[in-house]
Amino acid sequence: MPRHQSPATLRNLGPRAERLLASAGITTAAHLRRIGSVAAYARVQHVQGKLSLNLLWALEGALTDLPWQVVAREHRTSLLLALEEHPRVV
């Protein structure tokens, strides 16, 4: 897999998600994989402000190769708890 693969090449992610991630300094799929969905969402939220949780579901789905709808239905609670416990980005 190319080292500089765009996040938009992953399942559930498109140009808008790619722009949001880039605004937080996450420009490659490898970087997204390294930090994980919760940390990536927290970084984007810090930069962009209020975000839809759909981005969190999409990010997790991109990393687990699941449709975001499945993530939202089956992993919602664990992701929300992880997000709540995640240190705030300053």
Could you explain the architecture of this structure?
- This protein is mainly α.
- Helix 2 packs antiparallel against helix 3 and helix 3 packs across helix 4.
- It has a single domain, classed as 5' to 3' exonuclease, C-terminal subdomain (DNA polymerase, domain 1).
- The chain has helices at residues 15-23, 29-48, 54-64, 68-74, 76-85.
Largest sheet: none
- CATH fold descriptor: DNA polymerase, domain 1
Q: Helix fraction?
A: 55-70%
Low-confidence stretches: none
Integer count of domains: 1
Overall form:
globular
> Mind telling me the C-alpha Rg?
12 Å
- Class by helix and strand content? mainly alpha
Q: What is the assigned CATH homologous superfamily?
A: 5' to 3' exonuclease, C-terminal subdomain
Q: Sketch the topology as an H/E string, one letter per element.
A: HHHHH
Taken as a percent bin, the fraction of beta residues is under 5%
Q: State mean pLDDT (0 to 100 scale).
A: 93
Reported CATH architecture: Orthogonal Bundle
Number of strands: 0
A few lines on this structure:
63% of the residues lie in helices and 0% in strands.
Q: Which helices and strands occur, and which strands form pairs?
A:
Blueprint: H1 15-23, H2 29-48, H3 54-64, H4 68-74, H5 76-85
Please supply descriptive tags for the structure shown above:
63% helix; mainly alpha; globular; DNA polymerase, domain 1; 90 residues
